[in-house]
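Let us work through a complete example step by step.
Step 1: write down the sequence.
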Amino acid sequence: MSPLAPPARIALAGNPNCGKTALFNLLTGSRQKVANYAGVTVERKEGWFTLPSGRRCSVLDLPGAYSLHAASLDEAVTRDLIRGFYPGEPAPDLLVCVVDATNLRLHLRFVLELRALGRPMLVALNMMDVARRRGIHIDVATLARELGVPVVETVAVRRDGAQALVQALQQVPAAAPAAHQLPEDAALHAEVRRLLDLAVRMPRRTAAIDDALDRWLLHPVIGGLVLALVMFLIFQAVYAWAAPLMDGIEAATAWVGLHVGQVLPEGPLRSLLVDGVIAGAGSVIVFLPQILILFLFILALEESGYLPRAAFLLDRPMAAAGLSGRSFIPLLSSFACAVPGIMATRSIQDPRDRLTTILVAPLMTCSARLPIYTLLIGAFVPRREVFTGLNLQGLVLFALYMAGILSALLVSFAMKTWRRDAGEHPLLMELPSYRLPHPRDLLIGLWERALIFLKRVGGIILALTVLLWFLLSFPAPPPGATGPAIDYSLAGRIGHALTYVFAPIGFNWQICIALIPGLAAREVVVSSLATVYALSAGSDDAAAQALAPLIQSQWSLATGLSLLVWYIYAPQCLSTLVTIRRETHSWRQTAFAAGYLFALAYLASLLTYRIALMLGAG
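Step 2: predict the structure and record it as tokens.
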């Protein structure tokens, strides 16, 4: 190791679940920023810290990778950046390869691949405290000698757990001789075995706790039941625990809007601020509790080592539909809201599986559909028992949920077939050791995702909401007008024009008008229908109670059923479409999602409406 200047740019590389991000958080703390790499949706995390010598260094937390033979977009970004080939990203001065000291048999392979690049590097043996507790003895000096690079011990979950690493960063190690090509698999495995024999002494019973837990948690039956219980808890938490916080945000938004409205005089400015800006910002921020609760569970499951096991259990059944086990949690969370569900697809490494999951996530029945389902089922489906304890209205609601799930599986299978991807994408992942998540890492992760959501989605949603306010507010009703104001607005005129498009599926002009403000969020369709029918209701529940008998008398059963089926597929949710655009960086994919969802909605409603008419439900 030659005493050169301290490195100015350090890159942390390693397998997923090696504690690399925890080490990054320990070094940089709050002095970090999160963005995306140019041209891709892979997350870019960079932070700063100061060496004891006073030299300020930038630290890049590279996406997790199992190999430089890239099998995912994350691994391709890591490979290209390490080699200095990524556009707009200079090559790092020093590579720090972070490895799990309890699982060197898997992690040393990546160390050998990085060493073959011939770049300055050192190895951080992370989780050394856990290794010692398990009786794993690692001869650090021998390992460093055989690798030909410095090796230091770290414990990323302790405040002083990176002292040895910081001291080693005071000088840049000399670059190892570069190999002409990456080693073959057989050579890598042989070298890993040699290093383990020389430098690592394992206890007779290695990871007894892990083995005991895996016997239960990976069992085909018991493991599946445990996973179902965990998923039920996540679903309930995202759906139920967030409700008080969301109600509080809505109440705060209403309070701010009320006081701003009292200060400003009647006019367009007050309407813009109250109905457009404040209400629009509230409609975005109200999703934040769901996002944070969802990611709290995802981060905790990932840090604990359970998430890869859940993906392993579900990989085979979901592979039949063209998905992978990693798609399960994003799709499940989409029952609360597709926005956090789509954001959760970042844990899916395979780009094709990730895109497919993003495109089918809107088919999960989100909570925003429930007010509409409640209104229409209450108006058009009789309240009677079909079997003992089974209510017809409840069965219809269950059928709507199942229709969304089956449609998602069929669409993903069709996408797999259309892309001629008949082969399986094997789920290659290690099963890391179980460990308790560190609160600091959870808080930093939640803070990062809150900022990402507000910055990436909030601005666009707010702008579109203001646009919708304009359409709903102008022009004002003429003097002496007796109808609802929305009927005279641009949105109202558009609604009347849309009747020519939606008449074949049974929608009248009132429904068409309600679809327009429903672009911002599906929940507002009920209150929009109340506005169209000139009803004064203080809440959606009150509007639904007043609307149900009215639409029952004015709409045919065929129209009610058609609208029910429409909202199984309807893409009219700008939050979802904007999130798809942000996550895919592609207007083409966003247009495809909106187009195929609209086509499914229209075709399903058309068939429902026509069959209902044939059966005398007109």
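Step 3: interpret the result. Confidence is low (pLDDT under 50) at residues 534-540.
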